[in-house]
Amino acid sequence: MQHLVRKNILELAPYASARHEFEGEADVFLDANENPFDTGFNRYPDPLQHEVKTVLSSIKNVPIENIFLGNGSDEAIDLLIRIFCEPRKDHILILPPTYGMYKVSASISDVAIKAVPLTPDFQPDVAATLAASDAHSKLLFLCTPNNPTGNSFERGRVEEFLQQFKGIVVADEAYIDFSSQKSCTELLAQYTNLVVLQTFSKAWGLAGIRLGIAYASQEIIGYFNKVKPPYNVNVLTQKAALEALQNHEVQQKQVQDILEERKKLATALSDFPFVQHLYPSDANFLLVKIEDPNALYRHLVSQKIIVRNRSTVLLCDGCLRITIGTKAENARLLKVLKTY
Ligand code: PMP
């Protein structure tokens, strides 16, 4: 693993915050230059978010030592690039069409991007991807279920990468809770080059609190913790996440409702003559090929309904991406579509 990590990160002496230095029991805290008057928020947050990780660990069946929490999974993506990729020397591999932040994060760090398109049925082309990689290919981003296509990658292909790719394989599972496939977290014990990303932004219904998760070997988690800003997850976020985790059944019920709505919406959409193709979805959205996507997009906007126009994205010609809303929202969408 060490040979994959940037030299400056290996050698980095991380910042030691006050809350990090002392972790035991005490009554009087005069170590962090905080305001002593209790506002509810006058103290810095737990830098390693022990309480949240403890509950998450038991729900996800992953040991606490293998969990990193960040300011959205976007922070984890950015940190991975900064830990492993030497600017102007190394590159990341992405499989378009896919989530846009891998490319943006790499570009911000002046790290090059190699793109190997998915096959027409939206699966990774394992041979072409491995052929495109070399000693400077540090990270391979696999988004499964994939955004914007909505499908999951075949487990066999993911494992082929884990066995043959010489860098780190990042399985971005932002949409895993809507999927019929099992999480790659169960492969963590077997593959030390695996990082699994998940988020509180989708199934957990907490996009506003900005909380993302990376599961990985203890060694990789150590690098995340070395590089992250000391207090990267604020007190309000930790509180809200803990509450949601302790009421897991609420999330489970919402996921069930969304899955039912996904099924109903898919059936209803396929009846419209202007819907040319409806792609199977393992996520909380549907990718739909439309005869004239721009015209339909404008019609929906005129009726105050916003979907994502993906019609110019590689392999997604003519497609709109529609998030599954509430029952009432989906009914309104269908009503408006009937007036088109
Ligand atoms: N990964 C994927 C595949 C996504 O679609 C998104 C958000 N749309 C993210 C990561 C970012 O999630 P977060 O809100 O945790 O930063």
Structural commentary:
The chain has 12 helices and 11 strands. The chain has 340 residues and is α/β, with parallel strands linked by helices. The protein has 2 domains: 240 residues, Aspartate Aminotransferase, domain 2, CATH 3.40.640; 89 residues, Alpha-Beta Complex (Aspartate Aminotransferase, domain 1), CATH 3.90.1150.10. The strands form 2 sheets. A 7-stranded mixed sheet has the order 1-7-6-5-4-2-3, with helices on both faces. A 4-stranded antiparallel sheet has the order 8-9-11-10, covered by helices on one side. The radius of gyration is 22 Å and the shape is globular. The mean pLDDT is 97. The structure holds 4'-deoxy-4'-aminopyridoxal-5'-phosphate.
Search tags:
Aspartate Aminotransferase, domain 2, four-stranded antiparallel β-sheet, seven-stranded mixed β-sheet, Aspartate Aminotransferase, domain 1, binds 4'-deoxy-4'-aminopyridoxal-5'-phosphate, single chain, alpha/beta, 12 helices, globular, 340 residues
